[in-house]
What does this fold into?
Amino acid sequence: MRSSVHPSGVTGMTGVAAVSTIERPLPLAAADTWQLVDALLYSVSHDLRSPLLSLTLSADLLRDVAGAVPEGSPGEVAMDGLRYGARDMERMIEALTVLSRARRRTFDHDRGPLGLILGGHLVMSDVDDLVRRVVAVDPMVVRELLDEVTGQGPVEVRAVIEGDYVMLSAPVAADIPSFEGRPLIALVSSLQTYAGSAVERLAALQVLLDRQGAAFSIEAERLVIWLPLGEPR
It folds into this structure.
């Protein structure tokens, strides 16, 4: 170590020991990065709504005031563009709100029998007593996914056990826009394209299932769901 004289004339000690007590910041990968993502989603989806609403209401007010913007004038065209643009932005912000809610949602159950998920559907499986098998997810979330993709009516669901998971497969009946990869990636890659569509709802369901260790994909016009098996309480 070496000594140093400060401008005040006080002699101090500088060197490695002086900074060794400072903790090195954790890299983002080692920190709880999702807390940052949650904060960003909440901030964007909530804090931007007030100024956006002000723009929309101001444009509507000017349009409604008699003579404020002459019909067919460039001002009317500009005002319509402002209104449509604000509403388009509101649609995209709402998509982020949906993701924020999915990240914060409290599950009603952390496990349940497959019978709660498969009830009402035609089940094709070689697994004995399948409906009594317990999965470690909230069954209502899986039902939401099935209803979103296969429709409200009964469908044929194939089920197999793969290690510590049960794999469910059902035909896609809903009109879902084409997208590549997982729905969450598709949505955040192009809010303009997918906000407000079924892809937005699938992205939120992906977040909910990922939080519980489950996953799903859509392949060859079929919905494939992987659910972790659990033990009954």
About this structure: The chain has nine helices and nine strands. The two ends are 62 Å apart (CA to CA). The mean pLDDT is 82.
